[in-house]
Write a structure and sequence with these properties.
Blueprint (H helix, E strand, L loop, with lengths): L10 H6 L7 E2 L2 H10 L3 E6 L4 H11 L2 H10 L1 E6 L4 H15 L6 E5 L5 E5 L13 H14 L1 H22 L8 H13 L16 H14 L2 H16 L13 E2 L7 E2 L2 E2 H18 L2 H17 L1 H6 L5 E2 L14 E2 H8 L2 H10 L15 E2 L7 H8 L3 H20 L6 E2 L4 H18 L2 H17 L1 E2 L3 E2 L12 H18 L2 H18 L34 H16 L2 H15 L2 H4 L4 H11 L3 E6 L5 H12 L5 E6 L11 H4 L8 E6 L2 E2 L6 H10 L4
Parallel strand pairs: 1-3, 2-3, 15-16
Antiparallel strand pairs: 2-4, 4-5, 6-7, 8-9, 9-12, 10-11, 13-14, 15-17, 17-18
Helix pairs in contact: 4-6, 5-7, 9-10, 9-11, 10-12, 11-12, 11-18, 14-15, 15-17, 16-17, 18-19, 18-20, 19-20, 20-21, 20-22, 21-22, 22-23, 22-25, 23-25, 26-28
Length: 694
Amino acid sequence: MTTDLTDARSPFLRHGATQPVHWMPWGEAAFERARRENRPILLDIGAVWCHWCHVMDRESYEDEATAALINDRFVAVKVDRDERPDVDARYQRAIQVLTGQGGWPLTAFLTPDGDVFHGGTYFPPSDQQGRPAFRRVLSEIAHVWSEEPARAAEAVQGIEERLHAYGATEATRGELAGSVVDEALDEIANSFDFRHGGFGRAPKFPNAGAVDLLIDRWIEDDTEWARRAAAETLTAMARGGICDQLGGGFHRYSTDARWIIPHFEKMAYDNGVLLETYARACTVFDDPLFAEAVAGVIAHYRDVSPDLVAAGGFPASQDADYGFDNDGDYWTWAEDELRAALNDETLFAIAALHFGLDDPGTAMHLDPSRHVLFRRVDAADIAKRLGLSEPAVNQGIAQARAHLKRVRDERPRPFVDETLYAGWVALVASGHIAAARWRGRTDAGRAGLAALRRIMEESFDAERGVAHRVGDRDAVESLEDQALVAKALLDAFEWTQDLAHLESARAVLDAMVRRFRHESGAFHDRPPGEAVHGALRRDYFPIADAPAPSGNGSAALALLRMAALTDEERWHELGTAVLRAFAGSAARLGSSACTYVKAMAWATRPVTTIVVVRREGDPAGDALLAAALGTPRVRTVVRAFSPDQLRPESLPQALRAMVSAHAPRAYLCAGTVCAEPVTDADALRTLMRSFRAR
């Protein structure tokens, strides 16, 4: 049966068009029909990568009897959360205040005006594990709507009151305070898992923002516990099953405390930020494992979407599964599969030890015969156990990995969604540019630049800003896209020193300020004043990293970096206004808003500006710039000029009187305190590591 979703751009919605439910897309037509027929709305929010969305599709939405009940009593609306993050964010909040948890699939029951009166996440086809059967829920909701409308109205009122209270406590004005950084780090320290790395208990999600703050603290103050928490977390993830040990890249989260059993989908918003964090950590900690993680993420994108990467762009996600009836079968291994794939007893013995096949924690819950690969035993220990040389074991591990990857490639591959969502593409582009800056991966840097060029050519309009979906000018704009694209353009500018990237970032930020800014100084998640339906009537000012860096935190950080790069006060004023809009709530936000916390550090602590004056093609000048870009220092911006193109007006006041046309030469100022100029790359590295602002 064809539905209104047949021609949808979203693969998740197009799949809904094959179901017997009469789905409608989000929009006025659905709400008008609900009002006209006085029916409640069944809202299903999911995504193409979501395992439990597929399960509920198969069990309920593809079941004829369930579909008949829905079609008879409800107006059914399906939303792709990747395509409409604005819709998802608001209804996630409503369900969270109603049930205490959110997630996907999100199943909400709405009034014809779009207000939630009941809902949850996954509902099974029959009563199980405390969850009521979906058909029973549908029948009871339909009964309440038709026979007891006062109950529905009362539920709406209660949810609205809690949503209002929640929003008020999240966005409370206050003054800038550097103590916010220390308080967030204290919270991170208190939640650190000293046994397994990471923060909190299972399930464990990567928190690159928290790790970045820890690395900053270690670089700045030599705080040993911060070094340990950052390094051990990155090590645990890179060795764990959350990291794809064969194909590279990271899965979305771990179901266990040891980072072994993941939810297998791979998301751009995870891999982009983790690529950037691991790239910088390689330089800070000089750990070859972190370098392997960087290479793995880059390899993942070239493996699953080589043509897209070459054309400019990175896919949004890769699905967890290739079919309803498998649970991670593509990613996991039974012992006999591993033995057959390697076809050599010594190689099998090496692989079984290295990848932890004898560890009970690797067994899948629904099929304990299948195992997730993780790095349990290293080469030196394997060599002792098997009586082999360490080089032979290292060679065996490499051979086993290559063999297993080839065999896995013959399996049906989980779907890769090559939709280009601008903010997510920008996150992965930033990660690739970081790999170029910190690891010398110029091929990755070029891929990041190509993706940004495509965004600006196909998605940016000077009046409207960046469209959410690249190449689709009609797609809704979101704050996250503006802020993350601007951030990536600033990354591109610092790495290349090409002023075109700085001007592009300026244009994106100008559009963001013009279209998204609220009088409080904060930014709306979507342009206000446009036609809205349902919960979109409610203002939303995103500040929590969830898990992509938050729109307001990213906006503040981009504005403050632009201020540091250009010395234009208006950018600083705009950035600090964002921070003040949430400063009264900052203590409660803590590690859930690490991007905001990082921006607060930029506003309240000294920022370092490094200026390199060099002649084109001069090896000594190039070495100075490479040292400036490749030496870790917190809150630092880098500018390079040729002697005949100096722009002192774009530099902080303290630097203007110092900078001259003598080349090669590097200048460093931290806050209002400047060091003596240097002409040697090693001297600059030493200065960057040791110079402190008073």
